[in-house]
Amino acid sequence: MDERGAMPRETQEITDRQNRRVVLDEITDDNWRAVADVAPTDDQRRFVAALGARYLLLSMRGGVWNSLAVRAADEVVGHVMWALDDEDGTHWIGGMIVNETEQGKGVGRAAMRALIQRLAALPDCREIRLSYHPENVPAARLYEALGFKPTGDQEDDEIVAALAVA
What pTM does this model have? Predict the structure, then answer.
């Protein structure tokens, strides 16, 4: 972050705790099934969808969200999606899931860093927002560590947090 607390627009290689390169891939004929099968731990299902398939359908049918596969090395290990709010120009992150078997390896943090980097590189991106359930303490800690600050707003029953982009 720069002196204003904003995320810089530079790009860098991102790795997880196992030193695997983590990248975000477009959804293709070759990877959509692996993304659809991504499943979080049972205790996370009250905060996120039970399978990546739900988020893929939202992206395909809703016309708002853009899904991306999260890949560590050569394996699809998660899903994340983003959207642009046409009303105020903010970019939103939503629907991140990391496979249960990949939990605790730094994949979620790496995926978030990769998505922030990707969105920050867009010329019109000035702020990135996301929301999380107040009882989802691990998510709150992750987002705070990445520089997101609660705005005071709520989306449904979730806390809205924002990150300024340089």
Answer: 0.89
